[in-house]
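Minutes, project check-in
Item: structure for the 281-residue chain
Input as provided by the requester:
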Amino acid sequence: MKLFQLRKLITASLLTMGLMTIGTGVSLAQSKDLSIQGDHGKLSAILQTPDGAKDYPLVIICHGFTSNKDTELIHTLANNLEKNGIASLRFDFNGHGKSEGLFQDMTVLNEIEDAKKVYDYAAKLPHVTSISLAGHSQGGVVASMTAGILGTEKVKSLALMAPAAVLRDDAIRGICMNAHYDANNLPETIPLYNNLQLGKNYVLTAQTLPIYETAVRYQGPAFMIHGTGDVIVPYTYSQRYHRIYFNGQLKLVPGEDHGFTHDIKGACQAVTDYFVTQLKK
């Protein structure tokens, strides 16, 4: 009886320390918190690796505007990849989540610099056989432009979830989410929700941002998924991505919204299936 109780105590201790895995969850031994130097300070990041794998492909995941690396969408994608033998590195852009920097200093261009710093970090990791990029909303724009800058030789594959290429047109029109402003006479900051202040430089940068012109420089495998019910970023912006990628695939989800809230699991599974096809050959 005492031996049985001792075994129970040891098992409970191992579980608490994160050295065992329960069900389909990810143990602490497979997930590592990181701090990576970005363009505007240190970036909070999480490296998630497949259990027991000696070598593995890795996907860098970029979150959207005002979002972070810990949303259900980003977390679900990372877990799906891990279950299929693919590592992921997800991070908070400057001014977002747990990363340093002020939100009002954030621009798409310095988010691209953040993504490049994260790529450089990933490229030095042991056991990583290739690096791919994925992004949702503005993170999709950042991923696509980063892939264009880095080039096809460095980026194995690319997945864009409702990429917000509308941001340039919105900046020209004087719209950001529910905020309206004079695009020709910009204030220093534009108030958004939750006391967030959008900086003037964000809009100035966005108004002339060469999104597709930069993205087209990448011509590796690319996958776009977009809901036809997306009222924030019309799916036509993904259709344009599809036209510039010679090796691209487009999946339109009938009635789905910008955050894939009707079926997050389904959207993440579609992206995972794509990466499995490209990376596990």
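Outcome recorded: The chain has one domain: 31-165+211-279.
No further action items on this chain.
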